[in-house]
Amino acid sequence: MHLADRSFLRPVAACVALVAAAYGPSAHAVEPFTLKDIRIEGLQRTDPGTVFAALPFRVGETYNDEKGAAALRALFATGLFKDVRIDIEGDVVVIIAEERAIIANVSFVGLKEFDKDTLTKSLKDAGIGEGLPFDKAVIDRAEQEIKRQYLSRSLYGAEVVTTITPLERNRVNVTFTMTEGDAARIKEIRIVGAKVFSESTLLGLLEQTPSGWLTWYTKNDRYSRSKLNADLETLRAYYTNRGYLEFAIDSAQVTISPDKQEISITITIREGQPYTVTAVRLEGDYLGKEDEFKHLVKIKPGEAYRGEDVAETTRLFGDRFGTYGYAFARIEPRPEIDRGTGQVVVVLFAEPQRRVYVRRINVAGNTRTRDEVVRREFRQFESSWYDGLKIKLSKDRVERLGYFKDVGVETNEVPGAPDQVDLAVNVTERPTGNLLVGAGYSSAEKLSLTAQIRQDNVFGSGNYLGLELNTSRTNRTVVFSTVDPYFTVDGISRAVDVFYRTNKPLNQAGADYSITTPGGSIRFGVPFSEVDTVFFGLGIERTELRGSQLPSQYSTYVAQFGRNSNTVPLTIGWQRDERDSVITPSAGKYQRVNFEWGVAGDTRYLRTNLQYQQFFPIPVFSKFTLGVNAEVGYGIGLQGRAYPTFKNFYGGGLGSVRVFEQGSLGQVDTTGAYIGGNKRFNVNASLYFPVPGTGNDKSLRVFAFADAGNVWWDKKPVDYNIPGGNPIRASAGLGLSWLSPVGPLQLSYGTPLRYKSDDKIQRFQFQIGTAF
Question: How much of the chain exceeds pLDDT 70, in percent?
């Protein structure tokens, strides 16, 4: 065979070309030639078009070794092939491909700790899933990641074994076999070096705890490195807030037992000496507004150094710089320490950096909620100067929507534009459907049930849609409601209600009557500030009194207007909501005033309701919250007409005076029926504190409550004494508040403090979806 025979040399030259492209120039290069054909061999599942699309050459073009190397790199980059080579036969390029195996199925054996569907999705996102190419390296990395996740949950004895089972047609099954074992529990936590504060006091600050009677629920006895770091910062903050500026943690040793079931943690600390602040000094560039910044200083000379005050002052300085557009202002505390006297001068050095404006606001994580629902809550606009206060207000408004578990706002620099930033709004969706269920039990009325199905974010539009059903013995209600919070672009809301209510008040003498009210209403909410809203509404109702034996007040009403009457109520209201959370508030106020005015129809009346609610964090006990709620209601007839009895207020039960049965307070007619009254007053106080062993978890809290109030009729004076009349009732007790998957749940058990012998007592009550 002659050495100049090109058909013999070209297969070798093609391989040399790949090496040449990878490692540098080579003398053994294929001579360029014009392609007459391209042939592909070895494909079983892959479409030939996928291969042709990856090739950097076509028939009729010139082929050379650089193009051959580029073709191999492109084909390997598809991830579809285990091996690829190029042969050259005359003027024909032959692509010989060996395909990767395809994953036919991914299964798990012994999986308990993780959700199967979630793990399957995560693996598929990593390239391991049905129909995807098999890659042993990716499988190995996934196995190590699963092991790491087990370690993060204190399952140190967990083992993960991957089995690959070949199938026909170049397919494989991937099976992950888990041996999870039991989670390692924290047996002991020691703090060495504590002298000023007792070890038990310091241990009480930590989130992680040794195994206890409630750790099966809190899982706080499971070791986590991230939780340990958080606990170390808690210790550091505790000391630095009490003057120990030089407090240090020398080590945090974690040891595990040979059987990998018990963990011991030893934290070694150096307390140092306490320091007293003698002065606060501002240095650096404060934009010529030093006096303005001095009013923000929370550090108090003459008192012990508090790291919390220093951090708060630094944050306030940063926020104030942010209002002037300086998003990256640096404020550095520089304490000047005098160890001999135990005194410190706190120097706050400021460097504003540069003023910037917001180029773009990006929303991410909203898989269901539309972008506009988030964007319309923002008070920081694109192409405007950066304003830290507006950004914080915007974040708070998005959180208050209740559609997201977490809301975060990050400020990112724009490459090449030092005067621009982008805001990244990252949200985590939460279920916005809500099933409200309430129940009560008494020996007289047995079990009563209420239900409500609602969707606060229909189709991700931010609109509310609800259906309320009440099946109790005294109240049967069907209410369909819809709310569009942005009926106009200015933020005016519109609410529409269509209802059908049948009320059968409690009675003792067997009176058989009911009040049926079909109707509807429409109302609009006009925002006057970030926390103030004024409401206007108009409705139409038809009241039908049914039954053979009516209470005397209803009989008087029927004699004047008949059993059926029409009402056109006009509603005007004002609301101010400054609470830090709608579901689990710990600070802030809520105020509401509402007027209902019967302007047309068979009735003329004015019905007023006022509510004031406030939550106070307890300074001494940081995890405790005191909530106070007060309501006053009053109704009066107008234009010489009697106040309609069916507009009476009722009292008793959750939301009023607990322990007394729902609707049982107020006037009792001569027939024995509870008909409420046109005057109402109740006040509630609840002290919330976490369940022992749950840390600062607000999703599960215990509360102690005290309630007082009653309902009166206009012609009878308010009586505060028990011996006669209709005095104020009072109760007290304990309860449990839990953010359950179907809504906020409250259970209460109490005892009456001020009551009459004929009152209907209901010591145990519970409801899902109420705050008081």
Answer: 87
In order of 40, 54, 127, the CA distances from 77 in angstroms are 17, 9, 14
Residue in this structure with the two tokens 């009697």, named with its chain if needed:
642
The amino acid sitting at 9 is L
Contact 751, 720 (CB under 8 A): no
Summarised one tens digit per residue, pLDDT across range 481-510 is: 999 999 988 889 999 999 888 877 666 555
Residue 291 has pLDDT above 70, yes or no: yes
Residue 71, C-beta contacts closer than 8 angstroms, at least 6 positions apart: 54, 55, 56, 57, 86, 95
Give the Cα separation of 309 and 375 in Å (integer).
34
Tell me the domains of the chain and their CATH numbers.
Answer: 6-99 (3.10.20.310), 102-179 (3.10.20.310), 185-270 (3.10.20.310), 276-351 (3.10.20.310), 357-429 (3.10.20.310), 433-768 (2.40.160.50)
- pLDDT, averaged across the chain: 83
Q: What is the Cα–Cα distance from 358 to 346, expressed in whole angstroms?
A: 33
Read off the tokens for 192: 């060495």
- In this prediction, residue 369 has a pLDDT band, given cuts at 50, 70 and 90, of confident
* Residues contacting residue 372 through CB under 8 Å, at least 6 positions apart: none
Angle at 643 between CA 637 and CA 644, to 5 degrees: 140
What is the longest distance spanned by two Cα atoms in the chain? 128
pLDDT for position 213: 76
* Close Cβ partners of 423 (under 8 Å, ≥ 6 residues apart): 358, 360, 361, 362, 380, 391, 409, 410, 411, 412
Residue 243's Cβ-side half-sphere holds a number of Cα atoms within 13 Å equal to: 16
- pLDDT number for residue 685: 95
Query: Would the pLDDT of 23 be above 60?
Result: no
Length of the chain: 772
The C-alpha atoms of residue 288 and residue 265 are separated, in whole angstroms, by 51
Whole-prediction pTM value?
0.58
- Could you tell me which residue, 317 or 368, shows the higher pLDDT? 317
Residue 745 bridge partners (DSSP) = 738, 768
Q: Which helix (H) or strand (E) holds 482?
A: strand 475-484
CA–chain centroid gap for 708, Å, is: 33
The residue among 57, 103, 51 whose CA lies nearest residue 77 is 51
Cα–Cα distance measured from residue 585 to residue 598, given in angstroms and rounded to the nearest whole number:
35
